[in-house]
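Structural prep section.
Before we set up the soaks we want a predicted structure of the protein with flavin-adenine dinucleotide in place, mainly to decide which crystallisation condition to try first. Input record follows.
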Amino acid sequence: MIDVERIVANSIPLNSEGSHVVYWMTSARRSRWNHGLDHAIDLANEANVPLIIVESLALGHRWANDRIHTFVLQGMIDNRKLFESAPLTYIPYVETKQGQAAGLLRSFTKGAVAMVIDDYPTYMPRDVAVRAMETGDCCVIAVDSNGIVPLRTPQRSFTTAYSFRRYLHKNVLGFLAKPPMAEPLKALNDLPDGKAIAEEAFARVNVPITPYEFIWRVAEASREGRDALSYLDIDHEVSPIDSTTGGSVRARTELSKFIEQRLDHYHVDRNHPERHGSSGLSPWLHFGHISSFEIVDAVLKHQKWNPMKVTPPHNGRREGWWGANEGAEAFLDQVITWRELGFIYCHQTPNHAKYETLPDWAKQTLNEHSEDERPYLYTFEELENGQTHDPLWNAAQMQLRTEGFIHNYLRMLWGKKVLEWSSDPKTACEWLIRLNDRWALDGRDPNSYTGIFWIFGRFDRGWFERAVFGKIRYMTSASTQRKFKTEDYIRKYADS
Ligand SMILES: Cc1cc2nc3c(=O)[nH]c(=O)nc-3n(C[C@H](O)[C@H](O)[C@H](O)COP(=O)(O)OP(=O)(O)OC[C@H]3O[C@@H](n4cnc5c(N)ncnc54)[C@H](O)[C@@H]3O)c2cc1C
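Run finished without errors. Recording the tokens verbatim:
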């Protein structure tokens, strides 16, 4: 039974005479540890009707590009295999014309018991769920499979990680006690086949079912794959990343490697650009190929943890609460506290990607310094092409362009310098969103807006006042280079 705080529905009741249950998958793109899938299975079992899963990839969003398409289609190949032997109908669907997916979604709601859809607090998946609830012809239920804390549960907002940690210390064990099913497909009854119903839903709106060969070709990320994508009206300049393939299988492999090889040193190595000390899981987390519940479960099992190890008081301290080792404590703080701080904020603040949502103290201090002379001023194109005077910054930007990722510590520096080198803070904020969301595999995520707006003071406090930044925290490439070895990093990306 799913926690009621994880679901929100339109006003149409369940149709007990309906012919099928459809799960429209947009952000929790996985077959395990998925509250949305659990709920769809419950509904289909109860009504004894076919369960149809449509994993949809739309093209009518601002940052649609070859990089995102390839990663998602690679995930579809995994899902097809993982769903293959289950008594359900899985359809990976790639939109080929703008607006087509919306018509198809509505077609699937006709005659359905219910539609389950992913509830995500930002960007395209959020808009799709809202539209589905407004226009669907059946009961449409948005299910929150985003993290450990249900988005709707906290009855208050959090302005710092510290205040959220205090809340977590008091409540997180209760949330961890209600995980989604690790292997939900085992709970499926032997339901009737939904293939004919699915085909009819496509035919009714004259939308072709995406040929598997297309998905397979794109997933190969070869020249043929790029050729196949060239027919779609998306950004082809942002190319796929050969070394980072999408899908739940790769996500789980990366998780195991991280836990076995790097977790114990995470607290030390995480900030060193040359050490590859973090999990690297953000792209798979972003597309829902892996759940943070699964990650936390694996970390806690590795620590042989049980709730008796928790050490009171529940006072919001960063370390020493879980009773795990230092590496695990530091990692849990990122993957739960920092990740979910942003998810909850985005849920509570629909216009979270607007400069105006910064805290008043931050806007005021930035405003007071908006006329200060900037040490360097670059155009957007110079920044996007990594053409500044600063080799470390350029290397970070080139890593973003070529690998779809920037090391976390450098990501902070990267953002701070855009604030320093742009004509005014609002422009800097818009440019950072453009750079990050266009090129980052993990972009367009609540974490994107946590990270970018942290650059401008959200979830942070005031520091010493200085030019341009005012009281906003300041960072320099020189001090980063003193703290960490960066020569190899710069060399690696200089010519990319
Ligand atoms: C300017 C800027 C932009 C950013 N843009 C993004 C983005 O587009 N997408 C994104 O996922 N993260 C973003 N971050 C946050 C952070 O840099 C990445 O989450 C992290 O580097 C991902 O690497 P990892 O998976 O190896 O993290 P790990 O250190 O292994 O952490 C595990 C997970 O915890 C979460 N996490 C870690 N650090 C943070 C953080 N500071 N804030 C929120 N969640 C965190 C992520 O989900 C991450 O995958 C941004 C940070 C900054 C300063």
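Observations: DSSP finds 21 helices and six strands in the chain.
Flagged for discussion at group meeting.
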